[in-house]
Every structure is written in C-alpha cells, then in structure tokens.
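explain this chain.
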Amino acid sequence: MVTRGLPHAERTPRRGRADLPAPPLDWKRVWPDIRALLQPRRGVLLLGLLLIVVSRLCGLVLPASTKFLIDDVLAKGRAELLAPLVAAVLAATAVQAVTGFALTQLLSKSAQRLIAELRMRVQRHVCRLPAAFFDSQKTGQLVSRIMNDVEGVRNLVGTGLVEFLGGLLTAVFSFVVLMRISPHLTLLALLIVVVFGVILKRGFQTLRPIFRERSLITAEVTGRLAETLGGIRVVKAYHAEAREDEVFAAGVRRILGNVFRSLTGVSLLSLSATVLLGIVGAAVMYVGGRQILAGALTLGGFVTFSAFLAFMIAPVFQVVGIGTQLTEAVAGLERTRELLDTPSEDQASERTVQLGEVRGEVRFEDVWFEYEAGKEVLRGVSFSAAPGTVTALVGSSGSGKSTILGLIASFYTPTRGRVLVDGTDLARVTLDSYRRQLGVVLQETFLFDGTIRENVAFARPDAGEDEVLAACRLARVDEFAERLPDGYDTLVGERGVKLSGGQKQRVSIARAILVNPRILLLDEATSSLDSETEALIQEGLGHLMEGRTTFVIAHRLSTIRRAHRILVVEEGLVIEEGAHEELMAARGRYYDLYTRQHGFEKNLFLAPGEAEWEPAEE
C-alpha cells in the first residue's frame, strides 16, 4: 500500500529513529567483525603491505638523492656521480609505478569480492528471518541495508587501509632519517603533529554518528520510494503524484542536510591539517635557517629534511581522507551486524526435530498469539483436523483466520499454547523438513518477474515439463496461457502486473499443486476468479485435496459446504465448529453469515419492484 492508512501529515518523513544519536562506538564489539573480515584475507593484505612498503621506499629515493646532488655532486663538482644518481632515481620511480599498479589490482579486486560475499551473506540471513520481522520492516529499507551498508567495508581491505598503513611506515622511516639530520627540528615538528592528532580523534568521534544517521535516512527514503513505485497505480488513481513528490523531496532534503554536516566536519579537519602544515613549515624555516647560519646544518641537509618532513606529515593528511572512509565503513559494519544478529527462524536451539513424511494431523492446543505485546489476535484457540480432511475457516475480516493459517505454516510461533503436526510441536521442528510438505496459496498473490512456467515451477525447480503442464491444467492456467503469443514463456512482469488478478491466482494455485503437499493452505484462493472459472478450479482443487489435510479460507461460503469441519472465528476465538448442516441447524453466527451473504448476492439481481429474497426455513 502507498498510504498505509495514515493521514498525509503523518506520512511525511519526520524525525524518528534516523535522527536519534548513535550509540558510542564499542570497539570490543566491532573489532571481532573487522578481524573476521580481515583474517581470511591476511595473505592478500600482507602482500599488499609488502608492495606498499617497496613502493614507499622507492618514493623516498628522490628526496634522499637531493642531499647527494647538492652536497656531493654540485658543491664538490663530482660530475661522475650525476649519471648513477639519475639512473637510481629512474629505477626507483619505475619500481614504484609497477608496485602501485599491482597494489591497486590486488586490493581493489579483493575488496569488491568482500563486498559481494557480504551482500550474499546478509541476503541469505535476511531471507531466513521470521515472517514477524518483515511485518515491521519496509522492503526498500532492507534492500538499502543489504546493498549499501556493506559498500564502505571495501576500505578495510582495499587500498585505503593499506595505503594508510604504508603511510605510517613511511612516516616512521622518515622520522628516523629526520632525527639523524636534526633532532631539534624533528621533535618540534612531532609536538605539533601530536596536538593535531588529538584534534583528529575528537573530529572522527563527531563524524561517525553523522555517517550512521545517513545510512538510516537513506534506507527510510529508499523504502518510501519503493513503496511509491510499487503502488504507482494507487498513486495515479488518487492523483497523489504531487504529494509523493513532496514526501520524497523531504527525505532527499534530510539526506542533503546530513551530507552538508559531514562535509563541514571533513572541511574543518582539512582546514586544521592545512594550518598544521603552515605552522610546521614556518617553524622549520625559522629554526632551520638559524641552524644553517650557525653552521650546524648544511643546505643539502635542510632541503632533504624538508622533503622527508613532508613524508612524515603526509599520513596526517591521509587520516582526514582515509579516517573518514574507515569511519563510514565502521558505521556500515555496525548496521550490517544488527541484521546478522537478528536470530533466523530456524536458529532456535529447540528446532531439532526432523520430520519424515507427515500424515497430516494438525492440532491446536490452547493457542494464544499476538503480533504486538498486549494486543491479542488469537485467544485460547483449540481444535484438531484429522489427516486427509478439509477444514474451513469463516468469520469477519480481522477475526484471526489468516493468523491461524500463518501458525500452521509456521510463519509465526504461538505466544502461548502449541501447534502440533502428527503429535509433534511445530516449535521444535526444523522448518525445511516441514515446509517441503506444505502447499500455500496466499490471499495476496505474488508472482516473480519471470515467465509463467518459471513461476509455476518455483515451488519445485526440479519438476519435469509434464508435471508443470499437468499442474497448469488442473489450475486452468492453460486456458489463458496457451492463447498468449509466447505461451508459457510469457513474461508476467514485476509482481505479475501483466496478468489479471484471476490469472495470477491460477498461476499461484498451479504452483501449490506442483508441490504435491501433504498439508494444503488456501487463503481466499479463488477470491479473484469469476464464478465459472472458480467452479472449474474447485474441481481441480477437489482432486488435489484428496488424501491431504486442507485448510480453506473462502470468500464465498457456498464453496465450503462440503468441508468436513467448519470453524467460525470471531475476535480471536473459535465460537462455533461443525459441519455445514450442523451449523445451519444451530442458527448461530455461521447461519447468520451464510444467509446474509446469499441474500445479498440474490438481491443484487432483483428487478425493480421485485420482492426481496428471504432465506427459506431449513
């Protein structure tokens, strides 16, 4: 749905979870995740580190050669040293270029593999989360978290981290050289760098919550956009394009505000780094100039000192860029960990029972259920269905019928009580062993963006062509599919948009038939069909139901008259149960629902002035 039943003012993006302050960074919690990512790639990282060391050392050849050029070649007139010196610089430059290329190829590709693996891992986990998890999540938000939150992790394995480590190694080597040239100048520069390091630490503590907030806002806006596009026909039908424009624009403005804040923070750090460079340069110029005039430092030594000082300070500037990337990576990793920490539906320690072929006996024992704490949907529901029988559920909308089917499918676990299949509590059963024997046709028909054949075979990808076509004939899919130009290879579009509601339901029923299930759940399975097609499909479903335990929620009560047992559900309670004849004779709630529906259907077609229909006495 596009509106979700909320007034427009409540549907606009507002300050909520995305605007809450991020919790403080817990390195004890984050570090195991980082280590788990780096451990399998330690060989690649070590090789990358070796390459960066070689590259950085070769990069130091040029500034180091300056002292020899000035003090030995030029000052002493030793022309024979010029050619070897230039050759050494050229060789070092060539090695630096080759190692730099190899480093980028090695680490960048490794980082992209890591992103792909993480996305697959998160997607696998999300698909195995309980149905209740998706009741409180937006599809677009989950897509954003799977695709975008892991993106920043590339900086942990890519060139970013290794470049930073290489810069630190270069800084250490440069520090040693600088101390040999002039200890006083070196310690003065180091003191200024340490002060700036403290400033950087506080700066990144401010930036991390901003990056985390951006991920949250982006997920919210993406989720809303996915809703709008998914419900575009509703948007157009109610001429709501302008309102949706406003909602999306408000979300984009929130992202823009967040980006501006992060850019301001990064800019302030860059400003501080520039000021640092200026202060260090001025200090070195003043002290170094005095040392040259006093004869304590040669001109070549001063030029070399200045060059190596740049290498020692360079990592400070790298921290601004790399540190921002790593901060973003940690924020994304935290959000990814939140998803991976959500227990999957088959993860419970008590789910250890592997079901063999089930007979199909289903029993509810004093089952209570609530989607939200304190709001009970089912209250003490108890009934049993023998193998091979048909149980129909009737009642008002929102009475709990679909929830009962959801519990039988083990989409949910009872808050209290038990749901048993063949005497085994479903809460203890491994879901794979149970659901492969389950066939489901949901009230909201869902088809994937593929062909008709692919959607039917989705239930059993290994099914043969004859089995797929047989299921299609039973569900009357052949009646429309074989008239289409591409037949069963016709693309149905996203969510089956190219098919009518009745055609989609037929494909969904064929999908359930192909499973050949032991337990069959039909939630308004024929509600979108015309009466003639429904009668034909009911005949096919009749063959499918033979020998299978079937639960039916029917739109038309006339279609469930032959059910072995009918449960009347109201406000989460089973208030009546029995066969059709028994419930009609009792003249209770079922009698009221049945006669009202038939009276409404017949009175729809009365001629003007014709007397209203009244139910005959039974």
User: Anything to note?
Assistant: The first strand starts at residue 362 and ends at 372.
